[in-house]
Amino acid sequence: MAFLCFNSLPLPPSQPRKIAEAPFNGGLKPIVVNGDPPTFVSAPGRRIVAVGDLHGDLVQARCALETAGVLSSDGLDLWTGGETVLIQLGDIFDRGEDEIAILSLLRSLNIQAKKKGGAVFQVNGNHETMNVEGDFRYVEAGAFDECIDFLEYLDEDEDSWDEAFVNWIAVSERWKGESSNSSKYWGPWNLVKRQKGVIARSILLRPGGLLACELARHSVVLKVDDWVFCHGGLLPRHVEYGIERMNKEVSDWMRGLNEQKSSSQIPFIATRGYDSVVWNRLYSRDAADMEVYPSPQISSILEETLQAMGAKAMVVGHTPQTTGINCKYNCSIWRIDVGMSSGVLNSRPEGKLCWSLIQSLMIEHIKWWVAY
User: Fold this and answer.
1) Which secondary structure element, helix H or strand E, spans residue 161, and what is its range?
2) Rounded to two decimals, what is the model's pTM?
3) What is the pLDDT of residue 349?
4) Gap between the Cα atoms of 230 and 372, Å rounded
5) Which of 184, 240, 242, 288 is least enclosed by beta carbons within 10 angstroms?
6) How many whole angstroms separate alpha carbon 219 and alpha carbon 244?
């Protein structure tokens, strides 16, 4: 797993809020968050860990978090990262069966981390926005089952949403254990069960639905100190449009605040199109694409974007890197999705010490990136 610690940069004007009220061990200053959903974060002196695409694979998610030193290995799902800042880069949804359980785990870890002076942030990826739009093409049968079970659990549970959501990971694993011998077959004749799963997922993830509102708590672009985190890639026109504006528009859409408006109100610049924030692959292309997209041109676009953001580097997921975690363009871009989910490449969680980045930025601390 990899992390790099930097001194915080001045933040753009906004209404900041502290997520830690007093200095913790070592006398570190509190983490300060600007924007709703979070857009600019000052995390003085913290270790920063970024985790890429998880795609519904709870086993691999736990493995990555344990290796990063932020999750206990005893099965109790305890935060062990102290004052670490963890950032998950989206695509928790699709291709796996434990999407809601992973969301529940991350929410629980965030609550625990805040008590230790740390924090957990998430950014939404293209598979989150696809599901809010009702695009269920990549949903596994087990994920539809989880939606059915989750709605049943909410109907029976008397706790608040926050408590019920945090507790879901434990409940879901218990229910799975109890029903391990039952058939989970979703054959072509099991149309009633399939329809029930689609309905349950639609209820939860339509704009204004409970899970859509949960996703609305998170941004599509996050800047922590002088690092930019997003799922696909940020471009100059995105920055010109306004990062806080874009994050708020996506959040409002997910909350269902645009329901009375036309479909054109879906935040296209962030969520639709090959060069939107969650779909962009410009910085993750391999050598075969370089004739169409010359490397110097891409480097120039990246440099312009980072200058506009007042940042030194960007970290992205979205495009699996078959050669492992890597950086490009003088390590101004880090690609950390290595297809770890069993629904993608089923690769092992990987960590790489970023000596080249340390040298190029002349920083004094060491960080590992967590690739997933």
Assistant:
1) helix 161-178
2) 0.87
3) 62
4) 14
5) 288
6) 9
Q: What is the model's pLDDT at position 341?
A: 77
Arithmetic mean of pLDDT, 283-301: 81
Catalytic residues: 127
* 8 Å CB contact between 90 and 128: yes
Q: How far apart are CA 295 and CA 297, in angstroms?
A: 5
Strand locations in the chain (E): 17-18, 32-34, 40-42, 48-51, 85-88, 119-122, 221-224, 227-230, 313-316, 326-328, 333-335, 350-353, 368-371
354 burial via Cβ count (<10 Å: 0-12, 13-18, 19+): buried
pLDDT tens column, 32-62: 999 999 999 999 999 999 999 999 999 999 9
Q: Are 115 and 25 in contact (CB under 8 A)?
A: no
Question: Which distant-in-sequence residues (6+ apart) come within 8 Å of 86 by Cβ?
Answer: 49, 50, 51, 65, 68, 70, 109, 113, 118, 119, 120, 121
3-state secondary structure of 165: helix
Nearest-CA neighbor of 119 among 106, 102, 128?
A: 106
Token pair 């949804």 is found at: 93
pLDDT tens for 123-142 read 999 999 999 999 999 999 99
Beta-carbon contacts of 46 under 8 Å, excluding residues fewer than 6 positions away, are: 5, 28, 31, 83, 84, 85, 118
Tokens of 121: 């942030």
Give Cα 257 to chain centroid, integer Å.
23
Alpha carbon of 315 to those of 90, 180, 282: distances in Å? Answer: 12, 38, 13
